[in-house]
């Protein structure tokens, strides 16, 4: 392996296998000290905790590979409220109704935002990969296989100043939202510390330019060739990487 490119085709440290995140440093305790229980989420933590980098946080959007042609033609990902009929919708009618009825603290409905996850192994992706049996998924999602999907990878920095962080499903009644950099950084730090990033969503209003997608993750060489052909046809130079671990249950 040379430079900053890994054996899986990723660049700039995007690969968690070739460029693993540093393990958190655990405090040294005396042998006689009583064991400490895990901190309850939401309770105050020591002020000396390191503030996580917000702008470099990776974000992931999963879509069916058949949707790429439409996305590339438009040059952007668009919110559910603006999706064309030609898009293969993996959300059930119930999910679409809930996300159109739920509103952020900004007053805008959730379905007017493009969603991203904070981790590739998100709760929603685990459900999709396992067969999408939950009510929130469509029949199209249930008939798809994990290798039919692609990951569109970017960063919070690329999302811009209008990004909103939700600490859970954005349509759930108890979900909290952070809309400014200070609040987002604090919430992100809490989610990381409490290992609660699987359900969180990062939302961008309206649309997200495909130019800001840094990498497309696919399951196989066959999918890579298909995606590269679509990108070349649309004059996008976005890198495509085969990374099977994201697609294996």
UniProtKB/TrEMBL annotation:
<feature type="active site" description="Proton acceptor">
    <location>
        <position position="99"/>
    </location>
</feature>
<dbReference type="GO" id="GO:0016779">
    <property type="term" value="F:nucleotidyltransferase activity"/>
</dbReference>
<keyword id="KW-0328">Glycosyltransferase</keyword>
<keyword id="KW-0238">DNA-binding</keyword>
<keyword id="KW-0808">Transferase</keyword>
<dbReference type="InterPro" id="IPR029494">
    <property type="entry name" value="DarT"/>
</dbReference>
<dbReference type="Pfam" id="PF14487">
    <property type="entry name" value="DarT"/>
</dbReference>
<feature type="binding site">
    <location>
        <begin position="61"/>
        <end position="63"/>
    </location>
    <ligand>
        <name>NAD(+)</name>
    </ligand>
</feature>
<feature type="binding site">
    <location>
        <position position="99"/>
    </location>
    <ligand>
        <name>NAD(+)</name>
    </ligand>
</feature>
<keyword id="KW-1277">Toxin-antitoxin system</keyword>
<dbReference type="GO" id="GO:0016757">
    <property type="term" value="F:glycosyltransferase activity"/>
</dbReference>
<feature type="region of interest" description="Disordered">
    <location>
        <begin position="26"/>
        <end position="53"/>
    </location>
</feature>
<comment type="similarity">
    <text>Belongs to the DarT ADP-ribosyltransferase family.</text>
</comment>
<feature type="active site">
    <location>
        <position position="201"/>
    </location>
</feature>
<dbReference type="GO" id="GO:0003677">
    <property type="term" value="F:DNA binding"/>
</dbReference>
<feature type="domain" description="DarT">
    <location>
        <begin position="57"/>
        <end position="248"/>
    </location>
</feature>
<protein>
    <submittedName>
        <fullName>Uncharacterized protein DUF4433</fullName>
    </submittedName>
</protein>
<keyword id="KW-0548">Nucleotidyltransferase</keyword>
């Amino acid at each position: 392996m040379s430079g900053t490119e890994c054996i899986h085709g990723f660049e700039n440290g995007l690969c968690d296998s070739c460029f693993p995140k540093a393990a958190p440093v655990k405090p040294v305790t005396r042998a006689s000290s009583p064991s400490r229980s895990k901190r309850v989420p939401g309770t105050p933590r020591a002020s000396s905790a390191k503030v996580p980098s917000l702008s470099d946080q990776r974000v992931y959007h999963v879509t069916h590979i058949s949707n790429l042609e439409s996305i590339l033609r438009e040059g952007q990902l668009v919110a559910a409220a603006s999706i064309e009929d030609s898009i293969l919708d993996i959300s059930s009618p119930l999910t679409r109704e809930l996300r159109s009825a739920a509103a952020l603290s900004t007053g805008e409905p959730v379905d007017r935002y493009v969603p991203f996850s904070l981790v590739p192994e998100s709760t929603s992706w685990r459900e999709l990969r396992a067969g999408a049996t939950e009510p929130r998924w469509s029949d199209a999602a249930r008939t798809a296989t994990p290798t039919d999907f692609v990951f569109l990878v970017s960063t919070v920095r690329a999302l811009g100043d209008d990004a909103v962080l939700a600490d859970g499903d954005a349509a759930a009644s108890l979900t909290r939202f952070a809309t400014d950099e200070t609040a987002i950084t604090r919430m992100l730090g809490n989610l990381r510390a409490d290992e609660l990033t699987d359900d969180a969503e990062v939302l961008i209003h309206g649309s997200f330019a495909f130019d800001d997608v840094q990498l497309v993750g696919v399951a196989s060489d066959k999918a890579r060739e298909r995606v590269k052909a679509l990108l070349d046809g649309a004059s996008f130079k976005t890198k495509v990487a085969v990374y099977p671990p994201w697609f294996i249950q």
